[in-house]
Amino acid sequence: MTLARFKTAETVDFLIVGSGAAGGVIARDLATSGFTVVVLEQGPRLESHDFRHDELAYKNNEELAWGRRQGHPQTFRRTPLETAEIVDAAVLSYAHNVGGSSVHFAANYWRFREVDFKERSLVGPIDGADLADWPISYEELEPYYTRVDWEVGVSGLAGPWDPPRSRGYPCPPMPIKSPGVLLERAGRTLGYQPYPAPVAILSRPHNGRPSCIHCGYCWGFGCEVGAKSSSLVAVIPQAEATGRCEIRPLCTAHRVETNAAGRATGVVYWDAAGVEQRQPARAVVLCANGAETPRLLLLSESSRFPDGLANSSGMVGKNLMFNGWSWTVGPFEHPVNAFRSIPSTRVIHDFYTLHADHGFYGGGGIDSRCPADGTPIASADWCAPPDAPQWGAEYKRSLRQIFTHTAAFVGHTTSLPVPTNSVSLDPVVRDRWGRPALRTTHADHPDDVATMSFFEQRATELMEAAGATRTWGDTGATATPQSQHLLGTCRMGDDPGSSVVDRYHRSHDVPNLFICDGSSLVTSGRGQPTMTIQALAFRAAEYMARAARKGGI
Ligand SMILES: Cc1cc2nc3c(=O)[nH]c(=O)nc-3n(C[C@H](O)[C@H](O)[C@H](O)COP(=O)(O)OP(=O)(O)OC[C@H]3O[C@@H](n4cnc5c(N)ncnc54)[C@H](O)[C@@H]3O)c2cc1C
Fold first, then answer.
1. Is the entire prediction scored with pTM above 0.90?
2. What is the pLDDT of residues 473-529, one digit of tens each?
3. Which residue among 44, 199, 441, 510 has the highest number of C-beta atoms inside a 10 angstrom radius?
4. Is 104 in the pocket of ligand 1 (CB under 6 A)?
5. In the chain, where the domains are located
6. Residue 450's closest CA among 414, 481, 495, 483?
7. Which helix (H) or strand (E) holds 542?
8. For ligand 1, is residue 42 a contact (CB within 6 Å)?
């Protein structure tokens, strides 16, 4: 196979920034449709054999997800009236490598449902939230969800809660593990309908990739056998095999250039040696995620676009959504050994939509996991009960007991779009490239807090019904959040006055600039947004290819 290599003097058809969940899919589809494609990725190219079971390196030292110690500080404030302060741990957390966060994510792959696309019509206005309907429906997106299932690789079983689907899953559900057994039994006791959790991890060989080896190192780790369906293994090799797609690692985009006519002409970036380069392209596609895409747009301001590129609506960076969560841990008399295999094998979706009887709007799902997603240091760090010993022989005994004898039931919930929750450019703090640092402004909407609390209570009841000898836990409603779900900051919509991209991800302001990643989402669903991000990417790429063939780009 000859890998494509383009010169920076050459104008390529499409230049994509970011090779993650969305960027990988779009690169693959545009290249297989016959277009020349360059993908700029700021992180390194790692392969499956590079990944290690090294919790200290990946979770504590942020080897894959850069933070302050690698020269990428972030700042945080709760409201626009406060001055943002530098945070120790990144509020906006994502992986920097070819494949993006799809490489080290947990791979829970829930489809959104019909309701998720029309919540504003169903629920009406909510004080303090900018709730809007999507310009597209579940029915329109369904064929692309099915493409994700089959072309990226998802394991599952169409259950009682599955939205309508045109085709079954390509792989059967992953074998149930012990916390799943506990959740299933408890759920049935309480009258709910637990079902196998859909995951982007292969339960049997598919598309030339092997099945999972159940090593337990999914959340925060790259998969060493390629069974996790990351962009790195599921789509990028196919893009490269066309001979028309070049993935350029260690290349950090810092400006989208435009001409006098207001069209994008290419992207300026720093290459692996730190030298500034410029790649011209007929169209630019931003897939840098819900944090970095708005930063790049805001950094690309000019006299024609004084508030940032594609930002005539003022919506770039606004309505940042994270997905809420809660966790409940329970110890059991017998070993549970929940650290084995994939994070979650069962989920309960009986509380998908809560409104009229509850006094707040929200919804979500509860899945079964190993506390701290299966790794010992994290487990020691934050899974012990409040009265656990802190030192000496008793501490060691308690760690051994907690790691092997506990299960967690975790709530994953809606996050409402709140206009003041945002990603913006910090006016003071700079990163190692001299760019303004990512500044997060965020406070949970009261309904989101109520939803998290509701889910913690249901998870506690489930834990008791499962036979836990006691329970402890919390909601994720902390003063300074840390999130991996970076959503909503360049929202999709028909109205150029209140959205950044149209229903096909074309920016309202710049006709050959497309934006497709977590930032495109109008609402946050109930957790696990990446299946939807990739379905949108398949749909956007199909549109871009069609438009380009007709001379519409
Ligand atoms: C530990 C963890 C667990 C997760 N678990 C789940 C889960 O179970 N289910 C789920 O649905 N989601 C999960 N997620 C979230 C999921 O990974 C993201 O929703 C998804 O990857 C977002 O896709 P994206 O295309 O928007 O961005 P990303 O996948 O983040 O890709 C963006 C890419 O752009 C690159 N980039 C950014 N800026 C630049 C620049 N200026 N120049 C060049 N390149 C740039 C980045 O390095 C990155 O590779 C998890 C995330 C993490 C971190």
1. yes
2. 988 777 788 899 999 999 999 999 999 999 999 999 999 999 999 999 999 999 999
3. 199
4. yes
5. 1-49+56-66+95-103+110-153+230-315+490-553
6. 414
7. helix 530-549
8. yes
